[in-house]
Amino acid sequence: MVIVPLNATGSPFIMVDNELRLGAEVVGTVHRIDADEAVGGYFRNGGKAATLNPNARSRCTGCAFCPNTLEAAADPRLSEERQLSELLDAMREQHPRGDLSELQEVTVSTGCFEHESAALSHLERLRRALSDHGIGARIGLLTSVLRSDNSFRKLATDVAPFVLRLTIECFTRRNLLLKASKADLTPAEIPDVLCRAQGHGLDTSFTYICGLDHLTDLRLGLAPLAQYVTEFPNFQVYQAHNAIMAGLRAPAASEIEYYLQARMEIERIFGDTNLRPQAWEGYRPLWYFSFGGERLVP
Questions:
Q1: Counting CB atoms within 10 angstroms of each CB, which of 10, 151, 198, 252 has the fewest?
Q2: Among 129, 136, 44, 141, which Cα is nearest to 95's?
């Protein structure tokens, strides 16, 4: 599953029926084309992983590069344990084999929690709802508000297994590009947050958008973080959905060479780890078939 912006007039790629073409050459076949609309939850990785959108994606505003602010979404906000339970009941009916006990990972994607206490309360409710449905999957949250040792202790006690996916996104222009709850986490503080989360027995990772920083800033920002993550980070290609968003790109980030160079920089930084990108995890991925010369698919 990948997400692409439509009506990119400068793109050399075109869609003809279900064929993706580069000029006249067919380079791919597209199946199940759908609008990127927020739903309560959906499955990935053949039904072994699920993504939940429990807190109304349309309520989350502030990051200048995010396409969510362009949408008129009628998406859910699940604030009670009963509503989470009802969502899981509905998802069981949609599961490929009708068995949610197969789930290994449940990711809370559109948390939009502005404070630690709200995020913790929701995660505790989610863990109880999962347990009531016989689901022992690891919970992951994309967030930047969980930073304190107190929250990490509560996660380890009441929510684990848990992976903290810190929403870093960029290292420069953070006050311009990010909403306040993300921007007030400084690049200098990021390694410490990940390290302390690990110290409490939690898994760790982060999200980063390639195309917002100069390549030098990308390299300097990422290099100290490899030792503090237990999962390969979620690196996404920046997509501009209008002219204003295009103006937010770093210099040279409108050219494919930027992303090829970014990919090589990241491969050098993470090459000595045993962490590798998973094909099913990325919506706007940098990697498809290989990582630093290693095959990712059979």
A1: 10
A2: 44
Highest mean pLDDT among 105-119, 144-158, 229-243: 144-158
Of residues 280, 282, 284, the one with CA closest to residue 43: 280
- Exposed/middle/buried for residue 104 (C-beta within 10 Å: 0-12, 13-18, 19+): middle
Q: What are phi and psi of 89, to 5 degrees?
A: -60, -45
Give per-residue pLDDT as tens, 214-248: 999 999 999 999 999 999 999 999 988 788 888 99
Query: Hey, what are 188's tokens?
Result: 């200098």
Beta 203-210 vs 13-16: how paired, if at all? unpaired
Cα–Cα distance for residue pair 141/222, rounded to 1 Å = 20
Strands 294-295 and 290-291: antiparallel
CA atoms of 234 and 207, how far apart (whole Å): 5
pLDDT, tens digit, for every residue of 269-281?
999 999 999 988 8
Indicate whether 196 pLDDT > 60. Answer: yes
Give the predicted TM-score (pTM) of the model: 0.89
Domain ranges of the chain: 1-34, 38-295
Which strands make up the sheet holding 41-44, listed edge to edge?
A: 41-44, 49-52, 105-108, 138-143, 162-169, 203-210, 234-237
Residue corresponding to tokens 């509503």: 83
- Give the other-Cβ count within 10 Å of 175's Cβ: 8
Closest of 174, 178, 176, 149 to residue 164, by C-alpha: 149
* Helix (H) / strand (E) containing 153: helix 149-154
The tokens for 19 are 């064929």
Pick the CATH number of 38-295 from 3.40.50.150, 1.20.1440.230, 3.20.20.70, 3.30.230.10: 3.20.20.70
